[in-house]
Structures are given as C-alpha cells and as structure tokens.
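User: Round two. Same drill as before: sequence, then structure, for each protein.

Assistant: Same drill it is. First protein:
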Amino acid sequence: MLAADSYVVAPITVSTGVIGLVHGSRPSGDPVNVVVRDMLGAYACGFGTLFERAMLADRLSEQKNVIVQRLQQEAREAELLEHADVSFLDETSAEQVSALPGTPHDDLNPAALESLTTREREVFTLLVRGASNAEIANELVISIFTVKTHVKKILRKLGAMNRSEAIYRYLAMTGQR
C-alpha cells in the first residue's frame, strides 16, 4: 500500500470510541521501527485527548450561553415584578375569602372546589388566610401531619403545585387579585 514495505496505523480514540486513524509508512527498504510506531501511537492518543477536550469546551460554552440567557430572562422578569402592583389582604378581605366557593374562573374548575370535603374547606379557608400548618392544626385541633395530608389532597383536587398557587387561583377565581 502506498508503495511502502513498512506501514503502521494508530487509532484516534475518545471516550466514546475510535474517531479516526493516523497512518504512517516508510519508503521502500526502510522498515517502521518501534520508536516510529510508538510516536505515531502517542500522537494519535494526544490528538484524541485534545479533540475530546475541544468538544467538551464547546459544549460547556454552549451550556454557559444558555444559562446566561436564562438568567437574563429571569432578571427581566424580576424587574417586571419589582414594579408590579402587589396588595396584601387585610382582616376584612380575609373574612370575605372564608366564603368558599366563588364564581368560576379559567384557572380553577368550580367543580374542584365543590369536591373538597368539609374539613378540607376548613383547612383551605385557613390556608387562604395565610395560616401556617401549625396554626391550622392548633385552630382545628388536629395534628400537623393531618393538616399536611389535607393540604396535599386540596392541592391535588385544585390542580395546584403548591399552597401559593392554590391561593392565587382561588383569589383569581373570586376576583380578589
């Protein structure tokens, strides 16, 4: 091959396998010795390592750019929230909230509120008022674990991910945003 009496091939490898081959030959009558073979092998190994590191550096750079873009988006959204009109419930508003259920809203299925048991409605009323699990347990004379169970069931029935979302949906549904 290539008019050579002596020929050697070394694989260029990365962690996923062989990505190429390095060929070496000597002109007729001059054999490839161990030193040339080992040098070609070392070159192929070094090239594979450098190639893999370059690929990893590219991937890391892409991931860094994605993270920077997402952080910038979060910063823009946080800036919008900084200027948002936020109001907190006073005691008279909290009393109005205790009158479950309200008018239907797109975010919350009215049947979901109706599916709450009497005890779940009591827990939800206190939850909407901002009571902690301990405060709810104390007022309803039940254990904190029972409160947590009721809250989990309420969230599941309302399709909310957390307490804040459940409260938001209820307030939106009753027009108290």
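Second protein:
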Amino acid sequence: MKNGARDMDVVAEAVRTMARRFADLASSAPDQPVTATPDWSIVDVLGHVAMEPSRYRELALGGGRWPARAADLPAFNAEQIATLPTRDPRELAAKLVADTDEFLATVADADADRTMMFDGDQRIRVDRSRGTLLGEFVVHGYDIARTLGRSWPIEPSHVPIILDGLNQVVPGWVDAAKADGHTATYELRLRGLTRYVYRFTDGQLTINPAEPGPVDVHISADPVVALLLNYGRIGPWRPALTGRVITWGRKPWLGLGFSGRFLPA
C-alpha cells in the first residue's frame, strides 16, 4: 500500500508466512478425505486454496470471477477444483506461494482506497482482502492438520486481520431464514486485541455502525476460539462451558446463537 505501509508490512508478512506454512503442510501430506470438508480430499483443499491468490489478484486488477451470491460459493468452488491446472501437490504448493507473493506486490502498489468485487457481489477494499486470504490459509491448514492428527498453532494476532477482511463480506453471508426479523446488537470482544459491533435490524446486518445504540449481548472470546466458531469448525457449547467464551448483557442467551445466523463459511 502507498499509505499505511507499516501496517501493511505486518499483514503482508502474516499472509506470506501462512501461505508457506500451509503449502508445506498440504503438499507433504498423504491424500485422504478431510474431516471438516468430507467431500474434499487434501489435494482438493490444496487445489482450492492454491487457486485463490491468483483469483484475488485478478479481482484486485479489475477482472476475475466471483460467485454472485454466497449460496453459489459451493458450486463455484466445486468448478474450481474440477478444473485445476494440475493435481500434483508440489506444483500446486509452488503456485500458491508464487501467486501469493504476486498478489501481495499488487496490493502494495495499490492506492489505499482501491476496491474490488468479491464473493456475494460485494465491493470490498483491496488491502483488507488479504484478511480473507489469510483465513483460507489458517482455517484450511487447521482442517488438514486436524485430519492428520498434527499440531497447527494459530497466532491470535492473525484473528483481527482475518475478521477485518471477513467483516467486509459478512452481511452477504447472513442466513436469511435464521435472521428473518431479527433485531439485536452484539459486541464481540477478542480478548486482549480488539472489539467489533454487529447490529441486526429486521434481519439486515451492519458492522461497527456509527451509532450502535444499546448493546443486547456482549461476547468476550478467546481470539482463536472466535475464529473457529466463525468458520463453523467448532460448536458453541464447549467454549461456553470452559470459559473461553463468556456472554452477558440484556439478552445474554443470544450469544450462543450468534455464529449460527450466518451461512457456513
């Protein structure tokens, strides 16, 4: 980025580091079904993730393809996997790393206010799209490591970067059936890091509104737990029972259902 270079370096380094960690893990693993995405094997997951950096770069340059609705994303991903240029894990890993570096260079050269189209027919900031890409590396790396029974430490400081990216598109991921008529304001506190406000008004979501009004439920969460809840990788009950997620306020019972008001990531 031409502005905010110091912050950009931190984000870019996180994306670059996790691209390599993910590539090393996925390309060295024996192919098998992935527990969190049972329709995909490890090579499928690697292929999907490997195609994303070049897609992001094309979108940042004003071209590329994206699903018009959040509900279209599974079919979009399935087509992506079916048309991979190769299924060789090492070639896919090399593509992922090289394309990530090219995407980061494109972002570094962009004006601070440049935007691009993205999934769900939404226009987002190019620089913050790095957060959603980081989420691909972190969460799918978690999926593969869990399948293999390996450790996959998640850096808490990466979570706000990911959420800053996701929050641009989350309004398009609201599950209309589960949010129909819902009006409430949620405050999410990532312990030791930052906070976000999510306001539903008759099922429509606004994030960090200028005038949020009274908060109905405050949620204090371990950052990594919040991330995995957001992506549907864990359920809400165990974190609640172990104190890794705590809710309070006028309507504390709403906290447990917060992540369930969105379509699966």
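The longest helix spans residues 5-27.

User: Perfect.
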